[in-house]
Amino acid sequence: MKLLVALFVFSAALCAADSPAPVTFYRDVAGILQQRCQGCHRAGEVAPMAFDTYTETRPWAKAIKQAVLSRKMPPWYAEGPAGKFHNDPSLSQPEIDKLVAWADTGAAAGNPLDAPPARHFAQGWSIQQPDQVFELPQPYEVPASGTIEYTYVIVPTGFTEDRWVTQAEVRPGNPAVVHHANVYIREPGSGWLREYPAGKMFIPDERKDRAATGGSSSAGASVREQVIVGFVPGRPPKQVPPGYAMLIPAGSDLVFQVHYTTNGKAAADRTRVGFVYAKTPPAKRVIRIQASNARFAIPPGAADYPVSGSAQLQIPCELLDAYPHMHLRGKSMALTAVYPTGEKDELVRVPHYDFNWQLIYEMKQPKILPKGTILRADATFDNSPNNRFNPDSKAEVRWGDQSWEEMMVGFFDLAIPAKADPAAVLAPQ
Length: 429
Prior knowledge:
The protein is of the alpha+beta class. It is 14% helix and 30% strand. The protein starts with a helix and ends in a 12-residue tail after the last strand.
């Protein structure tokens, strides 16, 4: 009898030794959330719930399970093998398995002593503490209802010397009413929006502006009006590699472009932008170009309407990142480099575009683009009733700022020698 008891105890001990330790929040889950989720899911950020603590996270355990199993979260829409993109936040299978096991086994807290050190975020910023901050001169009053056209304000920098920026971040004063926001550099020689006074919010004459730019986007069409950083939910701030920087020439102005949306409650916003400046002169200058097409007309009911645009490089460049931009009828986009040899290199393919997640896809390492490279954007649009986001499947759709209109732009962030002239980058079209 004693022998049987001993064998039973020994067998139970072996089974216990073979059984994996239960998954707990502090030992297994907190670190995943820190690295993959807290960029958005923390107090004061754009996500609707915070995952800073066990108490905050526990009620969302089942929702987290569903989101990671469907790969809805973290958001990522580009096809390609793991490791192709530097900023791919996709969870590994072991990470998914841990989050699922945690939800399935009761979402236990575990021992707080097992928790990794808290991830540090600069107060109010995702970049390091900015060297300088610019903001809207006064709050913008957003009504409770109605449609608000893209709203602009010109903010002089007062720079008496060139400034090189290595990190930049736009922070909405009121994320509940800021759909997205861009900050552009208007160089001293640019005539863009010169008819409007600085320091006052305004809505430009879109028809006049389109005529001036040949029907293309009202901003970003010229190297003298470079976008330096933008905000949309889920997009990280702008940070360039060591030795690279973005130039704000002396005497430049900042142009804030803010898209406000109403939500049933009157609100006020004072969006701002923060810059971190280079401590030493950079070797490479980062600029943004686009391959776009603003002369399309999407027929009513068209389910797979193709639109393409291209831009040709006149000097060698390095590609840092790329991303597609469309509106609610956007279906897919592929961004491709066609080299002078005729060889094609698919840079980014987004087969299922989502207007709510306008992500930037950073190359694993800068990609060399020789002189003569053609950068292509090939998109499709779904203007059919089957598109549940379609505002009106019976309408012919053309270029426009508002979400019920459309855009077709492939953006590319390039690096060129610091002393090179950006105006020499693109071939005339």
